Amino acid sequence: MAPQTGSIVLNNGDSMPIIGLGTWQAPKGEVGAAVRVAIENGYRHVDCAACYGNEAEIGEVFADLFARGVVKREELFVTSKLWNSEHAPKDVRPACEKTLKDLRLDYLDLYLIHWPQNFAKEVEGNCSFPRNDDGSMRYDVETTSAETWSAMEALVDAKLCKAIGLSNFNSKQIEDLLTTCRIKPANLQVEVHPYFSQAPLVGFCHAKGISLTAYSPLGTGATIDGMTVVGNPVLAAIGEAHGKSAAQVAIAWLAQRGLVVIPKSVTAARVVANRDVDFALTPEDMAKVDGLNKDFRNGWGGPKVNRDGAEQPRDGLHPLYPFTQPGVAF
């Protein structure tokens, strides 16, 4: 089945469409139109998050499309994410309920812990960025991932979420959670694109029965040797042979690896084109794209800061920050 109409089966038995619409950095006033175009042109998967700040606008579009019969709720797969400031067990359900209210839904198909590191909770609602007097992030270093996960499991029990999962966790953090969880994570969402193939983490998750979603599948501006992913001549040449663009080749490469892919755009033509990947890459094509990998991570969970004379991830001092833990390769 072509990726544009295909789906994977999660470990709870539900189907998740392979191609979804990402909504990160989709500005208010534009994201609703992009969601409308996507669903009217066949998308049945929308990826959201509380910290994106646009769930209420997306919810207005959902409500209108449901009311007009463009799509039924049960035909749409909606993902959202628990923000870092809401990890304390008592805050998890209210955060989810706020997202459901904003999205005008009764349940989520998938709810992810957005990042492993915890922020202190500062304000009402489901997303805050608390700061210390010196401008650094104010953290919660007491709540454990196991405690947060237990509260996530309770959301499944309450039928507020059909499946739960993780985002931006490393392999050790996932392994640790698997030793204590009652409900196994259904999905891990991480950065994956031709410059950052994440092959070890993909293999790890698939071996554990955890599906993987690729965010920033077009690199979000990642540049190597002066070339972005969508401007890479290797991808362009492969695309020319198939009558497709470099972006469509990158999306197809991810889908053929068994990943769910959530490209983001607010440009109507690109939204439609990103799902138009009904073609198969040859083994030679796949190998050429594999060869572009440089283990180039573009997203670090916030801006880098100068610390001890070097540029370091903002949250790198948090004990649960996933990308700089000693001895953890992926």
TrEMBL record:
One Pfam match: Aldo_ket_red
Location of the NADP-dependent oxidoreductase domain: 19-293
Protein name per the record: Aldo-keto reductase
